[in-house]
């Protein structure tokens, strides 16, 4: 701005100056005086939008957190457990959210994959895990699986029938009903890529088991 002039007067002065320039001079003038400011303004706008979206997401009610270990969930499966799940509950994604980790891979050749997953289990990152035999064995070894015999109601126990899988917990060697074999369900056949059996495991905080159970019922009800 030119000192001593009002904002309006500065705008008029700038318009007059630009109108007297050739096309090439206008291009050069824009590069010299406005390009950097436009880039800075654009970056600032993008960061502001990102910040607003991130903050609004954190204020949404979380319906559940789920992880898929060595059992990759397709994009269609993610939609089924996200938008379609909310539709089944007749609630809005504007105020609710789900947290899905659709592709967690444990690699025997890479110990860090187990270390990271163990840390997530330790802080109760998931209400449920869908996994293969390797993942199930690891969850049991770390004693992070719920005893389904103590958690599921009789109706759900009857529904899963002989699909309940026994397993022994880590150091205590206590045998529990640790998982449900969902390999033959329509959900797995349509949405999950796995070369092994697929198991549903309840994990996380005991007071949040119902969040995982609700998802289990939804998965089992898929035709």
Q: How widely separated are the two ends?
A: 68 Å
Task: Please give the share of residues in helix.
Answer: 40-55%
Instruction: State the major sheet.
Output: 6 strands, mixed
Main sheet: strand order? 3-1-4-8-6-5
Radius of gyration: 27 Å
Roughly what fraction of the amino acids lie in strands?
A: 15-25%
- Mean of the pLDDT scores? 87
Structural class: alpha/beta
> How many strands in all?
8
N-to-C SSE series? Answer: HHHEEHHEHEHHHEEHEEH
Cα shape: elongated
**Poorly predicted sequence stretches spanning 5 or more consecutive residues:** none
Count of helices?
11
Structure, described:
Helix 4 (75-81) packs parallel to helix 5. 50% of the residues lie in helices and 20% in strands. The protein has 223 residues and is α/β, with parallel strands linked by helices. The protein is elongated, with a radius of gyration of 27 Å. The strands form two sheets. Strands 3-1-4-8-6-5 form a six-stranded mixed β-sheet. The longest helix is centred in the N-terminal third of the chain and has 24 residues, at 35-58. The N and C termini lie far apart (68 Å). The protein has eleven helices and eight strands.
